[in-house]
Model the fold of this input.
Amino acid sequence: MDMPQHIAETIVDPLAYADFDRIHDVLTELRRTAPVARANLEGFEPFWVISKFDDVRHVERDNTLFRAGDKATVLTPKAVDAITRENTGGSPHIFRTMVHMDEPDHGSYRALTQEWFSAKSVPQLEEKIRELARTAVDEMAELGGECDFASQVALYYPLRVIMSLLGVPPEDEPLMLKLTQQIFGAPDADMNVDGRSDMTPEEQQAAIMAVAAEVFGYFNAMTQDRRKNPRDDLASIISNSRINGEPLGENEALSYYVILATAGHDTTSNSVSAGMWALCEHPEIFAAVQQDPDLIPGLVEESIRWEAPVKHFMRTATADTEIRGVPIARDDWMMLSFASACRDEEHYENPFSFDVRRSPNRHLALGFGAHVCLGQHLARLEMRILWEELLSRLESVEAAGPIRRVAAGFVSGPKSLPIRFRFK
Done:
C-alpha cells in the first residue's frame, strides 16, 4: 500500500522535523490509516515506513530477516547513495560502525567496549560525571539568569562526558562538535559548517566526507599514540583491540571512534533539552520534580521517549515476509520510525502528554534487541546526575523565547531553547 504523496514528502523533508506538530501530525495519520505503508518518491528508492510500536520492535528483534547494513542505514537519496558507493568502492556507508553491521561482525565489535557501557560498570563513573555536571551547572549560573539552554548547556555537557571517557582533551572538543553537527545536522543552516540551508544532498554528502577525512586524520594519530602509550580510556581499547586475532581495520577503528563521539553526544543533548522544554511548559512538573527528586529517573525516561532523538533507522528484508498482513518482498527497504513508535496510541495512554510518572515507560527511543543503544546506561546516568545537580540549585525556570528545532530527519531535537531562570 502506497502512502499519500503529501505524507511521503513530509517524511523525507528535513524541515518537517523542525516543526514538532507537522511531523507528528503525519506520523499520527500513518499509524491510524496505514501503519505499514510504502513511500514512492522521485529521487529515492521506494521504502516502507513502519510506524507502530509492536511492528518496529518486531523488525528490531529479528536481525536475520531484517538486516542493517545491506543498504544505507539512514534514509539516503539515490544520488547520494551513488556518490557514497563511488567513494567507498561499492559500500553504501561512509563509516563502518556497529550501527551499519550485521552478524557476525556486529556482536564482535560491540563486545570490545560493552563492558565499559554495561549496567554494572557505568555506575563507577558517577563521581567523574557528577564533577562535569557540577561544572556545567556552575557555568549556567554565571550566565546571569538567562541563557539558551540547548546551545549553551545541553550541547556541551554530554560532549564533555563522552570525550573524557574517549580520551579526547578539552581543547579538541570543538572538532568533535563539528563532526557531530555535520553528520547529524547537515540539512540545517545553523548546524552545518557552511551555514547554508540550500545545500543539495550531494553538497551535504561532500561536506560530510570532508569533515570525516579531517576527523579520521585526528583519530589515526590518536590510535598510533595509544598503541605506544595505552591509557585507561576507550581510545586505548579501540586502538589495541583485535577481532579474530587481527587488529581492527583502519576504517573500522576510525568508525568506532566516530560512533562513540557522535552517538554518545547528540542524542543525550537532545533528550536533556527536551526535558527542560517540558519543565518550562509545565510548571507543575517542575514543582513536582523539585519536591520529589525520586521523580528524576521518570523525567529522564520520559524526556528520551518524548524526543526520540534518533528519528529512524533503515532495514532491508532478506526474504519475502509480512508485517501486519502487508507483503514485504526480499530486498525491500524499510524505515523504522522511532519517533512514531514512541507516540503509538495502542502502546501508551495519552502519548502526547509529558508524564514523569509514566510507569512502565517502555519505549524504543534507544532501539531494541541486538542494536539497542550501547550507551543507554551511560545516557541515563549522565542525564539523572545533571538533573540532580541542577534542580537542587534551581529556584525557578521559564521560557524566554520560542524553541527552535534542528531540521534533520535522522537525529534531531531542540537547537535553541531560550530560558529565564533563578538559582537559590
